[in-house]
Amino acid sequence: MKTNNNDSVHSKPPMTEPLESQSDSKSRITRRAVLGVGLATATGAGATGYAATRYLRAESAPESQEHPESTDGDPDQQYHLTATIGELDVAPGETIETWLYNDQYPGPELRVEEGERVQITVENDLPEETSVHWHGMALKDANEMDGVPGVTQPPIEPSDEFVYEFDVAPTGTHWYHSHVGLQLDRGLLGPLIVEEADPHVEYDREHTIVLDEYLASEPEVTSEGMGMMGGFPGAPPYDGTLVNGKLPSEPDTLTVMEGERVRLRFLNAGSATTYRVAIAGHPMEITHADGPGVEPVEVDGFDIGMGERFDAIITANEPGTWEIQVHPLGEEAPAGRATLQYEETDDEEPRDELSGSQLLDYSDLRAVDSLDQYDGSPDYTIDLDLSSGGMMGGGDEDEWTINGQAYPDADPLRIEEGEHVQVQVTNHSPMRHPMHLHGHHFEVDGALQDTVTVPGHMGQRTLNFVADNPGDWFFHCHNLYHMETGMVRVFEYD
Ligand code: C2O
Ligand code: CU
């Protein structure tokens, strides 16, 4: 992809260069043997993912599914997802075999309306066990629908199925993905959109934009080295960046009409990459973060961590063909792109001049919903230190730890129903960690999110949530390779 060095209109430095200060992973050495983490291959019986094995050791998993009893009435929407091995065309002549929902990548967009109840039957045609997590869903009184094997349900065995059923909330851009081992990085993911009855912003049209890495080989835990600091368990080197399943050689085209306001739902479904996103020629109003609305804030670009969502509205007032640019931050993988195409314009080489260089900062986000319940002093506070086993006491060097413990050898965090919980997360490592809490949105810096990136080198975030949904809820880094190697705790309450 071309960089923006011929831009004569805008004098500020282009955002097209990734930040160098955040070197997530410069050199990488495959260290499969040392780590001993053989990913199950698709060769049949007994092939069980590493994480699945670990999660199964956790206690108190329910034995079998009690069929959902639709206590809140019949579902308004029913879906069927089949997890299978399939083929993915990422560019002309470039096809890989991977794992898919309903033979599609991204998986089918599940679209429901505010207040509805949804039933989703997940059928497992994979050679190993699986499960589906509904990332962003509150799952009020439905912890058993959360999709974490060994914690909230037994895994779905090959040839078996599981019926998920829950009330959809909160509204906004969410997603679903496998929660077993490294399956997410094979392509088992899709958007889950909960339409607002009465959006706080107006728009004429919308598009969903799913960002992900392109990995032509099977996922496996490797070592991301940082020179003197030794290695950290991490992702394999990626082969590119997919935007709606397409490499930049044949990008997805998003159509707009002059004069429209267009809502773009961005979802970082990547397993190990933070992306910097900008749309040439168009400033964006950020209107939603992880689903819920925020007061619109105008930016020229934003960084989006693994698992995070940002909705942006653009005003289509620059007829032409423009690039939507997606740069992996601190990674060597090539950038990705999609094309913003005005209907009135003939196809032409997309223009790449950015609208400016103002980047979104978390502190710019102001929730539209009331934050009153997070006022006052917390009932329960906890400091969580993110680190690798190799850096601080506790854990082995092939593990990522929270307060020195690597899941599943980690103490649960016991809280009580009704408590205002405050979590201060401090990142002792040089890498970013996008921390995700299941079953709750938390207040962070004035916004309501379910995933927040904690910057490296002693970066801190303070999260507040209300324990209003009893159950066992995963809290983990959404870098899949960090989760897989231990960066997980479970909040427990009944
Ligand atoms: Cu999107 Cu536990 O994850
Ligand atoms: Cu992490």
Q: Could you walk me through the main structural features you see in this protein, from its secondary elements to its overall organization?
A:
By secondary structure, this protein is mainly beta. It has three domains: 50-195, Immunoglobulin-like (Sandwich), CATH 2.60.40; 205-364, Cupredoxins -  blue copper proteins (Immunoglobulin-like, Sandwich); 372-493, Immunoglobulin-like, CATH 2.60.40.420. The protein is 3% helix and 40% strand. It contains three helices and 33 strands. It has helices at 32-35, 50-57, 480-484, and strands at residues 27-29, 77-91, 94-101, 110-113, 117-124, 132-135, 161-167, 172-178, 189-195, 205-214, 222-225, 231-234, 240-243, 253-256, 261-268, 275-279, 284-289, 293-299, 301-304, 309-315, 321-328, 336-342, 380-388, 400-402, 413-414, 420-427, 433-437, 442-444, 447-449, 451-454, 459-466, 471-477, 488-493. The strands form eight sheets. The chain has a six-stranded mixed sheet with strand order 13-10-15-20-17-18, with no helix packed on it. Strands 14-22-21-16-19 form a five-stranded mixed sheet, with no helix packed on it. Strands 25-33-32-27-30 form a five-stranded mixed sheet. The protein is globular. The chain binds CU-O-CU linkage and copper (II) ion. The site of CU-O-CU linkage has 10 residues, from strand 6 and strand 32.
